[in-house]
What does this fold into?
Amino acid sequence: MNWDTIQGNWKQATGKAKEQWGKLTDDDLDVIAGKRDQLAGKIQERYGIAKDEAEKQLSAWEKKANDDAWFK
It folds into this structure.
């Protein structure tokens, strides 16, 4: 799935993001508003991990995105 689909359906995707990264707050997700680079930065900040690790997690999460399961 491409990131444009996730960004376009951000309200639905936030639930999946919170499942994956429970330390992200609703406010974090509202501010991120579907911007991939901001999400990666917040993951880094909340979990105290390196940028490459945050990107790795984000890429894996993005690959799991599924139109049918995520965006009903």
Q: What stands out?
A: Residues 51-64 form the longest helix (14 residues).
